[in-house]
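cron nightly-structures :: item 1 of 1
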Amino acid sequence: MDESRADEPVALFGANQRRFREAMGWSQSELARRMQEIGWPKYSQVAVSRTEEGARAVRLDEAISLAALFGRKLQDLLDPKGVIDSWQRLRFLIEDYSDSVTKLRNVVRELEDERLFVGVAAKMLKEEVEAAGGLERVSETMVKTLSNADLILSRSTVDLVEGAIQAWQRDTGEDEGGDNGEHSEEA
């Protein structure tokens, strides 16, 4: 067996141990103390240092104890270049995105319900205005309210949401220099 290939897992384990230990904010002595507390009475700072240098291989039960201390899976200590961390981070981002999409769907449903209520209220007000003698017999504020209701009802909820998103992008500068969703066709 190639000697350098045999050392790769040892060095990889040591590098990941260092990464996880530092992420926990622990010194090498602190990690050794914590290992002693969970049943490794002779565990020392020297053992931690030699492991992290790739100069010392660990036993399987020791590796399991280290993983447990870090709150990780054993495979994480053999993960090259944080691939598993990146994969888990991507999974969490996808879950967050899915949760946001669900929330957006719920908001759109609520908006559609409100839009329907506006429609019913606008119809009732128009009937009352007609019974009172028409638009010229009511206040300017009431006419403006009916005009706003007509605007809301003339557009779909999706159009209203897209308009709100475009306004937010304008206000925050999110669409500067980027694709704003409009596509032009060249002749």
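cron nightly-structures :: done
The helical segments are 3-24, 28-37, 45-53, 60-70, 83-132, 140-154, 157-172.
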